[in-house]
Amino acid sequence: MKDAAASLAGITMAMNGAAKELRTGATSENFVESQATLSFDLMKEVAKYPKIDSHVHVSLGSKGPEDNDEFFDRLGFTRMFISRPVNKKEAPSAAFIQSNDMMYDAMKKYPGKMTGMFTLNPMYKKESLEEIKKRVDQGFVGLKVYYQVKINDPLFYPIIEKMIDLKMITLMHAEATLGTGGYRMKYDKKRMPNTSIPEDFVDIAKRYPEAMFQYAHTGGGPDWEYALKALKHSPNVYIDTSGSNNEENMIDFAVREVGEDRLFFGTDNMYFQGVGKILSSNLTDVQKRKLFCDNYNNILKKSGNQINISNK
Predict the structure, then answer these.
(1) Residue 312 within a domain
(2) pLDDT tens across 78-99, in order?
(3) 217 and 257, same structural domain?
(4) 130 partner at 20 to 30 Å CA-CA among 100, 183, 240, 244?
């Protein structure tokens, strides 16, 4: 917010300065300098990088994939990896099958733009494993799950082992909100006791070092400093930057803590901030491209699902 306010103030001052120079007959050199300030093309900067959205939802509310398509074209995406996790505590098999059907319909409607991430509930082992086979055959390339079961719960073991066989990543909803004295009131027994927190990822990553896990929405409002420090030494846990928050220094801090190769770009619920937070970081162009597309594409290569992207 501070950077945004400073940028807005700078633009306003430049505009006012240019107008004043026109009125007072100031030197042409000063006027040219003011015009240079105004000539920055934000959308040209947005279009500079290919963008693979590693975490974006479709049809969570009343809006369907048409809104994703509009967002895709507006910001020049390369591919969206779409999902629709079931947010009910029980999430019976009929519910997650319906969500996957919706993603498959979106994939068929927008081929080359949207690729599905199947969802499931490990409480239903047989149906979940059947769903994985069905959706992989349909072209889905990964798993997106919610908080019915913690990522390190034994119920997840057969699912994770199947994902290892497929060489595909598991994207799990995650939180890292801390409370007074470390008490996490948000995750008490009355609310969301099965929400996966950083320590759960550290635990499962150690148990299955050959698996690939994606810690969701670092930019979604959690204590991202705590989460990144906790995940620093879990090399098979990747972190996506999606979420509505655009806090100063988050991306730079993430690169310092976990490295530039373990971070993925994402928008979650198609938040524009997903793009802005990377553009406004102090990363080099090479590093920004890694976050926007190359890192996730390297994961896709493991299962043979990589995207051909221009090197320009």
Answers:
(1) no
(2) 999 999 998 777 889 999 999 9
(3) yes
(4) 240
